[in-house]
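Lay summary. Proteins are chains of building blocks that fold into shapes, and those shapes determine what they do. In this project we predict the shape from the chain. Here is one chain we studied, written as its sequence of building blocks.
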Amino acid sequence: MFSNGMTPYVKYNMFHVEQRRGYRNDPFRVSNLFYNPDEDFYVCPMGQKMKFIRQEKRHTASGYQQTVSVYRASRCEGCPLRGQCHKSRRDRQIEVNHTLDDYKARARELLTSEQGLKHRSKRPIEPEAVFGQIKECGRFRRLRLKGLTGAKIDFGLKALSHNLRKLAQAWAKSSFFDKFLPSRTAKQLYPNPHLKFYPKLISIGANAA
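And here is the predicted shape, written in a compact code that computers can read:
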């Protein structure tokens, strides 16, 4: 998003969980362990180094390739914190995706900034409500056309239908027409109450008369 000139005020799936006090104060979580980037090692809650072992290439279910670094402690046997730290019979081993952690850190910094708090307050009101209506009420769960152009057309048509539905609901409210229709046009020229749902046609008919 940065490369496309956009500022990503977008929450990742664990953002709210990470803000909880219990999560932030848990010394055994990998994200809370001290990390030395210069020498590439972690420090466990007991103060022992967890050294780099290997690096692995993996693919997610969506086909995205990610690089995972593996670190392992060396003297877990006899540690008084072992029962709280991990349940493995061997020394504790952790896996870290440094690229993903960097993205999360940048997103976290933006989301907790003053501007990020403003955007987050608008999210449940503006985009999430519309997204929920389109996905659940409209049963729109997958794009049917392929490619970027097809996706734009597919979702554009769905957004258009959503807006037309909202407009029809607004037209159904009499208070909405009071702002746009002349006071005598709808009632005197067209006494049929159903015609009030077409303000433009009524105005044209009034001018022609």
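What the prediction tells us: Strands lie at 34-36, 41-43, 49-59, 65-73, 93-96.
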